[in-house]
Specification:
Length: 159
Amino acid sequence: MRLTQWTDYTLRVLMYCAACQDRVQPVTITEIAENYGISRSHLTKIVQELAAQKLLDTTRGRGGGMRLMKPADAINLGAVVRATETDFTMVECFDPNTNQCRLSGHCGLKGILSQAMQSYFAVLDGVTLADLVAPHSKGVAPPKSRRAQALPGLPTVPV
């Protein structure tokens, strides 16, 4: 399975906003576009969708931008991926409306792939946005420094 570019960019926007959640000024689309080398117009559509899903609070005009509407630890990665991906049909037999496979009644592939998909989402469901931007891995003590350790591609902000 491969995530779409839409989901990839959605996760990048959310991660960037999570890394900046304690910052005074909101994050701007231009800031993210420049840091990731992504089209502003494409990001604008993603931000509009995230605002419609009540994940981002957006403010227009000078001094405007976006912030997470929920704490990063309340945003589940599995839920975000389910909301942004449109097709989880890994093979033809997953869709009963278009299935033409002659092996369907005798093949174990569908069951194995279905189990794999369930395992995939079980992992994603166990991860929050906060986990993705934490300066340390789960179960490992954070660094003693009061400044967050930078993750490549995310801004470093004081903690």
